[in-house]
Amino acid sequence: MLILGLILLLIGIFASIPILTTIGIILLVVGAVLYVLGATGRAVGGRKVWY
């Protein structure tokens, strides 16, 4: 999710498409939260490990 968010953010910035920039930022934030929760060992959505 982090990588997809970063890709969409960069495409949105370089192509001047504001909706892609917004979606990219949202995906980056959600991906970062899930990454931090997973790294601390907290179960997210009933799973400890996301593949």
From TrEMBL:
UniProt xrefs under Pfam families: DUF6131
Query: Which residue ranges does UniProt annotate as crossing the membrane?
Result: 25-45
InterPro entries in the cross-refs: DUF6131
Instruction: Note the superkingdom of the native organism.
Output: Bacteria
What keywords were assigned to this record? Membrane, Transmembrane, Transmembrane helix
Q: What is this protein called?
A: Uncharacterized protein
Q: What is the lineage of its organism?
A: Bacteria, Bacillati, Actinomycetota, Actinomycetes, Geodermatophilales
